[in-house]
UniProtKB/TrEMBL annotation:
Gene3D superfamilies: 3.30.450.40, Winged helix-like DNA-binding domain superfamily/Winged helix DNA-binding domain (1.10.10.10). The keyword Transcription regulation applies. The keyword Metal-binding does not apply. This is DNA-binding transcriptional regulator, IclR family. Pfam families: IclR_C. GO terms for biological process: negative regulation of DNA-templated transcription. Residues 73-263 form the IclR-ED domain.
Length: 275
């Protein structure tokens, strides 16, 4: 009998996880039991019971008209997991090595969900540069450098996000401060995401700032995109991105992924990122 209860418990746990995952697959803030049931491939009554139980645990929150959204316990779990993300010193050492290997400016961006999906610069290795040569105003840094639809670093993240989040990002306008190479046509932008997924890296030509080209690769932990690593170089120095720079960026992204999984960084080892 104990064995049967264990099997039943596992089955119920799987259904709960499927409902939680359904929230990530659907666009919008809140959803009804029917939409969640279809996404989770469960019957409505099962989903309703899971939602009611989850409300009492803080996993879900009920809103008006029978709609539900993820509760505060969901981001708390995520923050707990991120508490064991790479140590700053270890990640920065990888960025410094990337800067020396490529002769460019190296940046680490992380995906930030609050206020709509965007990216935030978590660390950089720029040597003696004060970044004034980028010619970006404080407003441009706030808008362009946060956008997921502008720049190789943003698109390297966007390519691996669910389609629902991609659609939300594409609904936002291109920042007016973006560089002349930014993708302003959604069809071309989506085609660029296909190329990124096919080859595993992104190239940018004067997207964020005039006169600067970029190469970026996604940083993924356990199959989920968490950010991207980027190298920027002046256009006159890097008209076309050489394979040596692409390889160095990919290896750094793979090493950061190893750190995120609690493994030693192996920049010259196997690249386990999604492609």
């Amino acid at each position: 009998m104990a064995k049967n209860r264990a099997v039943g418990g596992s089955s119920h746990a799987e259904r709960v996880f499927r409902v939680q995952r359904a929230f990530t697959q659907l666009g919008g803030r809140a959803h009804g039991p029917g939409a969640l049931a279809r996404a989770a491939e469960l019957d409505d009554s099962t989903v309703y019971r899971i939602l009611q139980s989850g409300v009492h645990q803080g996993i879900f929150v009920r809103e008006g008209r029978g709609l539900y959204r993820l509760g505060s316990a969901a981001p708390q779990l995520g923050l707990k997991a991120l508490a064991h993300s790479p140590a700053p010193d270890a990640a920065h050492a990888l960025l410094e090595a990337l800067r020396r290997a490529t002769g460019g400016l190296a940046f680490l961006y992380l995906l930030a969900p609050f206020g709509g999906a965007h990216r935030q610069c978590a660390d950089m290795a720029v040597g003696d540069s004060d970044l004034t040569e980028l010619g970006m105003t404080p407003r441009a840094v706030q808008t362009v450098e946060h956008s997921l639809r502008v720049g190789a670093a943003g698109r390297a993240i966007l390519a691996y996000l669910p389609e629902t989040i991609q659609s939300e990002v594409l609904d936002r306008p291109v920042p007016t401060e973006a560089g002349p190479g930014a993708f302003r046509d959604d069809v071309r932008l989506l085609a660029s995401l296909d190329r990124i997924r096919a080859r595993g890296y992104a190239l940018g030509h004067e997207e964020c700032a005039a006169g600067w080209n970029e190469c970026a690769a996604p940083v993924t932990w356990d199959g989920l995109v968490m950010g991207s690593v980027l190298v920027m170089k002046p256009k006159q120095v890097m008209t076309r991105c050489p394979v040596t720079v692409i390889g160095a960026v990919e290896q750094t992204a793979a090493a950061l992924a190893d750190l995120g999984r609690g493994q030693p960084a192996t920049p010259d080892g196997n690249d386990s990122r999604m492609k």
